[in-house]
Design a protein that fits this description.
CATH superfamily: Phosphoglycerate mutase-like
CATH topology: Rossmann fold
Strand order of the largest sheet: 3-2-4-1-5-6
Strand content: 15-25%
Order of helices and strands: EHEHEHHHEHHEE
Number of domains: 1
CATH architecture: 3-Layer(aba) Sandwich
Number of strands: 6
CATH class: Alpha Beta
Length: about 220
């Protein structure tokens, strides 16, 4: 069997001019995860990351913490997060930059509820399209995870929640899967690890949201 290890990026920079940059905490989280995986004897057969700066920087932090050298790497934009800022802006009808963290979260939850229900408020990407592209990228990673191979994917909380929801309830109706996705998305820890086993019968979820590598003062969700 092979495995796909899904990593949520380290903490980004909420409220900064450029959100898509790891905070100092985010860099520390990535290094700690890399060190923890190396201590488990994990050496990736390949690394894949989304096409966002926070994905790249998390992959760099992990490689630094693990001491990984010469691991083949590639970029797959299918692993990119949905545009959460654009989603909130479309829902409100204006730019959300002035919102504090708590208010943003409240508006975000209302916006995603409408988004996952299939409502069209001029959202940058439909929820159905988001799910389809993530599942396509999972298929590519799983195909590369042949017997004895480990593929590390650095991505985001929303994309990982899509994978986990699909693997937990593959035959459920879309509304049930969307509800499960929203519950998973809100609890995914920065730099957490989700393990997917790949075998002859397909992909199966082994663990979700591992974060034992993080001390309490480095545990973040946003």
């Amino acid at each position: 069997m092979g495995q796909v290890l899904l990593v949520r990026h380290g903490q980004a920079s909420f409220g900064a001019a450029d959100y898509d940059v790891l905070s100092e905490t985010g860099w520390a989280q990535g290094r700690l995860l890399g060190a923890a995986l190396a201590a488990q004897g994990v050496t990736p057969s390949a690394m894949v990351r989304g096409d966002m700066r926070r994905h790249r920087e998390t992959a760099e932090a992990m490689a630094d913490g693990a001491g990984w050298r010469d691991v083949p790497s590639s970029v797959d934009a299918g692993w990119d997060e949905f545009d959460h800022v654009g989603l909130v802006a479309a829902h409100r009808g204006d730019a959300p930059a002035e919102l504090d963290r708590r208010t943003f979260q409240e508006v975000f939850e209302r916006a995603t509820a409408r988004w996952t229900a299939g409502e069209d408020d001029g959202f940058p990407e439909s929820y159905a399209a988001f799910v389809a592209r993530v599942r396509g990228s999972l298929g590519g990673a799983a195909a590369d995870a042949g017997p004895g191979r480990t593929i590390v994917v650095v991505s985001s909380g929303g994309t990982i929640a899509v994978v986990v929801a699909a693997l937990l309830a593959p035959a459920d109706d879309p509304a049930a899967i969307a509800h499960l996705w929203s519950r998973l998305n809100t609890v995914t820890v920065n730099s957490s690890l989700t393990r997917v086993m790949v075998g002859s019968t397909g992909s199966r979820l082994l663990t979700f949201n591992e974060h034992a590598h993080l001390p309490a003062d480095l545990l973040t969700y946003r």
